[in-house]
Design a protein that fits this description.
37% of the residues are buried. The longest helix is centred in the middle third of the chain and has 20 residues. Helix 9 runs antiparallel to helix 10 and helix 14 packs across helix 15. Helix 3 links the parallel strand 12 and strand 13. The protein is α+β, with helices and mostly antiparallel strands. The structure holds zinc ion and manganese (II) ion.
């Protein structure tokens, strides 16, 4: 039977690195990009006798995440050991949380703008629907293994860094929703400053599980899990593949077995790794080295830290700056660009135009020069100044691009000075009017054609005026004067 006759049930476990100074159970530096195995100590290397100390900030960020997502926090939360033997975990157990995690329940909103670009969504508001969460727990990350031909290297810098695991209920129904779930969650984490959630850097990773059952059947089908998927589009591709694979096998009468498969994004297929893995395989037990956390004072503390969430930001970009929805979508999707825009727009008379310049011109120059907004030499206020001189009629949009180039290489220069250095000066309208009169007189044929209704030659006339003018006037103004003189 067709795939559409099966009910698809998807659940997600998202691991998200919390942005902290130090690791979860020791004072080693947390963070990305250090020389391998330099941020380590007896505790995070699992030396016998070394004892853990809790990172309160990481606990607070997890509770804050729960608050943002409408979870409840139990009065007491405890720590458990998840035992397994592998080179990425020198203690041979991961300190995690099993039955009393920091956050329980809650839901993730699916934002309308978070769906894949090729996917049509009908929504009245910013939130299409919410997806139920099971819980959020806090644990430590494992070390990073890199596999080579015949050997592997391990970097313990990542070992012991705070990692939040956001576990959904089996409440998603399609690969597109899964994509939107990941994107919405990522935007919330970035907005709140809890995580940079860069999937390329492994700061956010997801395990997806999916099962199929024929319509009408109550109990869920066998759950197939794919681990460590590292992009939203890969999650979508993996699910599309897996749903079709399972449907085909079910059609042939092949029963599915609970198992873990590896998604190979390059090959575009999933390969079975192991079958049946249950919680008891990990011999979970309460960690004797860590006392439970009494959460009430922490809950009280983070209540005051609730950030503006993406849907509120999306609404405010439209109401406060008059931005069109498409611009709000872009800015909510790129938080650093959004912050740059807000700094530039503060006090600007033309915030819409500022947004336009940030989203279109600035990003294209950054891309051209292989820079990111974080390393942009042009200060937000300088860009706002550039938009100001366009608004004042000192330069045209095209001239402003040249001015931008000058400012790029001389970031201390203001827009008016940069424009002056290119010979763009405030137009003396009387002088310009005289030049226009002369050019029209010298080109009676062209004037006749324009007067006859062929407006194409207007640009040619404007060009002629531009050519003989010094300093260079704003071409828009030239065109206006020509039209006025011709009575058009
Ligand atoms: Zn350490
Ligand atoms: Mn985990």
């Amino acid at each position: 039977m067709p795939v559409s006759d099966y009910l698809v049930t998807i659940g997600l476990e998202v691991h998200c690195q919390i942005k902290t100074e130090t690791k979860m159970f020791c004072s080693c530096k947390a963070g990305f990009g250090y020389e391998p195995n330099t941020n380590v100590c007896p505790t995070c290397l699992g030396m016998p006798g070394a004892l853990p100390v809790l990172n309160q900030y990481a606990i607070e960020r997890t509770i804050l995440t729960g608050m943002m997502l409408g979870c409840s926090t139990p009065p007491v939360s405890k720590w458990d050991r998840k035992n397994y033997f592998y080179a990425d975990m020198p203690k041979n157990y991961q300190t995690s949380q099993l039955d009393l995690p920091l956050c329980i329940g809650g839901e993730v909103p699916l934002y309308a703008w978070a769906y894949p670009a090729d996917c049509k969504v009908n929504a009245d508001g910013p939130v299409v629907r919410t997806v139920k969460l099971d819980h959020i727990h806090l644990e430590e990350d494992a070390a990073k293994l890199t596999h080579y031909n015949g050997y592997s290297l391990v970097d313990y810098n990542r070992g012991g860094t705070p990692l939040m695991e956001i576990v959904s209920a089996p409440d998603l129904t399609s690969p597109e929703e899964t994509y939107a779930y990941l994107k919405s969650l990522q935007q919330m984490m970035i907005c709140a400053g809890i995580s940079d959630a860069d999937m390329e850097k492994g700061q956010m990773r997801c395990d997806v599980n999916v099962s199929l059952r024929p319509k009408g059947q109550k109990e869920l089908g066998a759950k197939i899990e794919m681990k460590n998927i590292n992009s939203m589009s890969a999650a979508r591709r993996a699910l599309i593949y897996e749903i079709h694979r399972q449907a085909e096998e079910l059609d042939m009468g092949i029963a599915q077995v609970q198992s873990t498969r590896r998604w190979d994004d390059t090959l575009g297929e999933s390969i079975v790794m192991r079958t049946k893995e249950n919680a008891h395989d990990y011999r979970y037990h309460t960690c004797p080295d860590l006392i439970p956390v009494h959460t009430a004072p922490l809950v009280e503390k983070v209540k005051n830290e609730l950030p503006e969430l993406p849907d509120a930001l999306h609404a405010r970009l439209q109401s406060e700056y008059g931005l069109p929805v498409a611009d709000a979508n872009t800015l909510v999707g790129d938080f650093k660009l959004c912050r740059y825009f807000e700094e530039a727009a503060a006090g600007s008379k033309a915030p819409r135009k500022v947004a336009n310049w940030v989203i279109n011109n600035l990003t294209s120059v950054l891309a051209e020069k292989e820079l990111t907004i974080a390393s942009c030499p042009l200060a937000p206020k300088a860009l706002a100044g550039l938009v100001d001189i366009i608004e004042e009629g000192l330069v045209s949009n095209n001239q402003a691009r040249e001015v931008l180039d000058v400012m790029w290489n001389a970031p201390a220069m203001n827009a008016a000075d940069a424009a002056a250095s290119l010979g763009f000066k405030k137009t003396d309208t009387n002088a310009l009017d005289a030049v226009v009169a002369q050019v029209l007189e010298e080109n009676p044929d062209m004037v006749a054609i324009v007067k006859g209704g062929n407006m194409k030659l207007i640009n040619a006339l404007t060009g002629k005026v531009m050519k003989v003018s010094n300093p260079k006037p704003n071409p828009k103004m030239v065109t206006e004067i020509i039209l006025a003189r011709l009575g058009l």
